[in-house]
Amino acid sequence: MTLTLTRPDLIRSGNFINGQWQNSKKNEQYPVSNPANGLVFAQAANSTADDAKLAIEAAYVAFEDWRNLPAKARSQCLIRWHKLILDNSEDLARIMSFEQGKPLAEARGEVAYGASYVDWFASEALRTYGDIIPEAVQGKKLMVVKEPVGVVAAITPWNFPLAMIARKIAPALAAGCTVVAKPAEDTPLTALALVVLAEEAGIPAGVLNIITSSRDRVSDVVGVWLTDSRVRKITFTGSTAVGKILARESASTLKHLSLELGGNAPFIVFEDADLDAAVEGLMAAKFRNGGQTCVCPNRIYVHDSVYDAFADKLTERVSSLKVGPWDRDDSQIGPMINDRAIDKIQQHVQDALQHGAKLLTGGERIQNAIATGPNYFAPTVLIDANHNMQLAHDETFGPVAPLFRFRSEQEVIEAANNTPFGLAGYFYSNDIKRVWRVSNKMQTGIVGINEGAIASETAPFGGVKESGYGREGSRYGLDDYMDTKYLCQGNL
Ligand code: NAD
Asked: Which residues catalyse the reaction (predicted)?
């Protein structure tokens, strides 16, 4: 398995600070490996707090000029960046597949999806409108203007190495903010390649800075950003546990926070649903990215009267999924990101079986002539799942579909909402009254109604409860990077 690129210069091993590629101050690196075979194939800068400080300094100095550029000029930078991402999409997809493991077709899809945020916010940059408020007292003019919040720190996970960082950087730059970014330690290279293209697009020095670090350095590096008062916003996608640390530790300087955290998505199949459509929706929502997606259904509730029929149809589809490395055209599920991830999946399946679940397909690691590495897990369907199982409470983050049985709408709504999380929820029904009733009752930031593919750059993505706050994409996504300033003008 080799990584061949049209532009090998997209692979970087340093930090990018103030327009310069540079080694970490300590001149240290950490290894990046390929999840398909566990082999180290690149190095990335192992930064420290000193590098994190340099990045803030650069972003802080660059902020004044960047925010004062006409919106059209900022938009044009994003338009050029978008074009370069599309022009280099095959290389970006290959780098992503190599470090993250996802099949190439999915990586290509992610490049297009991530690029769509850059395109969207290039346009939204032109629409940061304020308001004129009708005067309450004669002679006073009341106006509202939108201003960029300032330096933004962006911290992203490994599951979508391009889309997650693009959908933070693009709105920040569109709003007139400058950025310091840290991608996940497992997947730094896609983000670094994206920054190579941002530099080529003419985004000025200091406006976009990126540093990398190994997992054991991450608290030191991000810790600097959390406590420095020049950083005005933290935008984070990752686990709820880390999100809570960031909320706590940034409190001393009261920063804006956008937290896109973990989910525990319910997927409900009512008795009046189109079962074939529900199976297809579940396949798209559950098995994309090998089930390593925060909006993946984690608990699939199926009405008693259609339970067996749905389980049969689903099992037929799931057992035909092809598991293999990114570079095979027929691979649909790649390796899991690392051994910690696969241990958790295995643990959830074992626990479910001990608590009464039955296995219809999958349920174990795969190692064969095609899936040769240690991190492959067979796509799995479990029936007779119940709420005593770990997988009912904790995201499995893998290709495991547990089916719970329900008998009434009220019962299933209570069960679906009985979680601290509230990112996405899905249901399938052909009864229009039920559609409105259930949509209203779902305690999630996103509801898929007879639809499994919900993400779009034009729509607000984000959660409620312990899935976090803030929205990405759409006009709401730009608002999160702006302060509202009220101007009150008396008689001149
Ligand atoms: P993670 O929280 O462990 O890591 C995310 C990022 O935080 C990484 O860059 C990591 O280096 C950094 N980080 C880790 N510990 C930190 C610390 N103590 N201080 C500061 N930064 C720290 O999550 P992960 O394992 O990379 O990703 C999986 C999780 O992310 C899942 O729970 C998933 O649901 C969630 N996720 C959410 C969304 C969403 O949009 N809501 C999208 C993707 C993933």
From this structure: 260
Q: How many CB atoms sit inside 10 A of residue 412's CB?
A: 22
DSSP code for 147: E
Q: Provide the CB-side half-sphere exposure for 284 (13 A, CA).
A: 13
What pLDDT is stored for residue 491 in this prediction? 80
**423 close to ligand 1 (CB < 6 Angstrom):** yes
Q: Which residue among the candidates 57, 106, 260, 466 is catalytic per the annotation? A: 260
Q: Rounded to two decimals, what is the model's pTM?
A: 0.97
* pLDDT of 136: 84
pLDDT at residue number 139: 87
- AA letter at 139: G
| CB distance 238 to ligand 1 below 6 Å | yes
Site to substitute for ligand 1 among 110, 155, 185, most atoms within 8 A of C-beta: 155
User: Phi and psi for 30 in degrees, rounded to 5?
Assistant: -130, 155
Check residue 378 and give its pLDDT. Answer: 98
Judge if the beta carbon of residue 422 lies within 6 A of ligand 1.
Answer: no
Q: Is 361 left (phi over 0), alpha (psi -120 to 50) or beta?
A: beta
- Cα of 257 vs centre of ligand 1, distance in Å, is 15
The structure tokens 């690196």 sit at 29
Question: How much distance in Å is there from the Cα of 157 to the middle of ligand 1?
Answer: 5
260 is catalytic: yes
Check pocket membership of 44 for ligand 1, CB cut-off 6 A. no
Interface predicted TM-score (ipTM): 0.93
Q: Whose CA is nearest to atom 40 of ligand 1?
A: 260
Q: What is the pLDDT of residue 30?
A: 98
Could you tell me the two tokens for 335?
């390796």
Domains with residue ranges and CATH for the chain: 8-261+467-486 (3.40.605.10), 265-449 (3.40.309.10)
Q: Which of 264, 267, 299, 285 is nearest to 387 (CA)?
A: 299
For ligand 1, whether the C-beta of 163 sits within 6 Å is no
Q: How many CA atoms lie within 13 A of 82 on its CB side?
A: 23
Q: How far is CA 100 from the centre of its chain?
A: 14
- In terms of C-beta density within 10 A (0-12 exposed, 13-18 middle, 19 or more buried), how is residue 12 classed? buried
Amino acid making up residue 228: D
> Cα 459–239–101 angle (5° rounding)?
80
* CA of 130 relative to ligand 1 center, distance in Å: 34
